[in-house]
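Bench log, entry 3. Co-assembly request; chain sequences pasted below exactly as received.
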Amino acid sequence: MPTSPRSLFDKIWDAHGVADELLYIDLHLVHEVTSPQAFESLRLEGRKVRRPDRTLATADHNVPTDGSMIAAQIADHLSRVQVETLESNCAEFGVPVYSMGSDRQGIVHVIGPELGVTQPGMTIVCGDSHTSTHGALGALAFGIGTSEVEHVLATQTLQQRKPRSMRILYEGELGYGVTPKDLILGTIGRIGVAGGVGHVIEYAGPPIEAMTMEGRLTVCNMTIEAGGRAGMIAPDETTFEWVRGRPGAPEDFDDVVAEWRELRTDEGASFGDEYVIDAGEVSPQVTWGTNPAMVTGVTSSVPEPLSDGDRRALQYMALEPGMGIRDIKLDTVFIGSCTNSRIGDLREAAEVVKGRKVSPSLRAMVVPGSQQVAIEAEREGLDEVFKEAGFDWRSAGCSMCLGMNPDILQPGERCASTSNRNFEGRQGKGGRTHLVSPKMAAAAALEGHFVDIRDWS
Amino acid sequence: MEAVNKIEGGVSVVDRPDIDTDQIIPKQFLKRVERTGFGEFLFYDWKDDAGWDLPVNPILASGRNFGCGSSREHAPWALEDFGFKAVVAPSFADIFYSNCTKIGLLPVVLAEHEVAELMQVSEATIDLAEQEVHFAGRTYSFEIDREIKRRLLAGLDDIGVTLQSGEAIDAYEAERERRGPVTTAL
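Structure output for the full assembly:
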């Protein structure tokens, strides 16, 4: 009897059911902020890490980006203790860890795909909401809390009721100067910050198929900003070529790829919700408020507030309705984060910056997503391009995306950021964040205010 | 986890939609390696705002999409440590909702107008077994996953429950587990 058509999500879900609503986890990524209490509970209960060989840790949230090579160099006492605690927990429980000083250290969502341990068909979790990033390779990947981190460490499973499904089908193609970041920001603006709650979202259509793996990682990364449980994209040649040759890639690569080809959503599979979005309608996006759905095109103006939330956001952001987005002056530009810190992002930004100078009124920094990204960028001379322009070239970490390390905004500072959240105080108490693509951030750094990358030269 | 059943007492209100976990507990307080002591930092960047009034009560009523953003379980830890035993809102972000149920902080979904009414009263009773919220002579019922409810009512340890399926996990690993990647062999 033929089985009914299934989606990519259905296939991965079905392959990982251990028992009723108990899901097997193929890869558990761990970092220093959301794991110490989980390891401590294991210790108190006398439990082990069931599968250290399916667990991988790195230090990213707290690490300074000044080139410090060991935890002992972290000036902030609590940050230092947290990184040292990760290292000692991993040593005690046998979990491999790439901490400070390792040439594989970096933002957890950058290093997974980079090492090739993120692969199609897997279930991947991490105590971090941006775990949705890994879905770009055709995995089911989502963020969990510390209690669930402990549960996965102890059992390699998660208790999960199957979420609903949604497909976002893009048509057309991205216009000149419009990037995957703009596409996902525009999408969040349309469906709202709670539009994806309770859903696993599959992104599909020609613009997704034409997208690089790095672009897909950016799109899936921001799924959580629409409230989505996970974002995913069907694996294809782009995916297979990304994984090929990486340290974690399967040895019998061609045989495995044949299995991965079967993961695509079947014709006729049903989704709980479906949106169709014309990618050609999307322009370069800039957020104006305090959540990622408060977003508009760079050529428009700050909108009239429609709610108390909008009014509060405008007040926090110190913006007046009707003000042109391109007239917003900036104090800081941050290029980095698990959303946009991969080598492709840095290449795009460097292309804009090359031979030019950062506006004298502004500080600008580039934080590569991983040591491997930094090494590659330095090999290509991108670091010199940025430094000559007046950018600060930093070492890898989450950095100013959330400001747990010393890289923070001062109260009232206004920042163009390639990160994922413009929440109040996200980059530092009183700081004002505008989310943009790497190209838009780079151009804004040179001009001191937002510009439309499409007609800028 | 302690068992949850009836929650009775005062209602505190933060009437804003889309409250993210960065507001519930800002990042500078995530550096602790302990699970306790987060209550004093709850809504740290908002608590000095003019008109801010958040008394210690067992029940918090708030706006839709409560707990969006970061997965930090420190947010429910802070709410619980502050004194809340239940949060009532028209909707919750997924990870936050799940995190609450893991520590026995009861998330209750009521309709938008029901939450608005709750925000007007000083006291309420939440009955998990009956799935009802009572206040001012009114009763509203709420939905909750049957399995989550069972665990909350009994105060069960999730890991302990899962380990009862230990044989199923062993069997899965023996027969169906995906090959690699092996993180210890990179």
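The CA atoms of residues 4 and 153 of chain B lie 5 Å apart. The longest strand of chain B covers residues 6-14.
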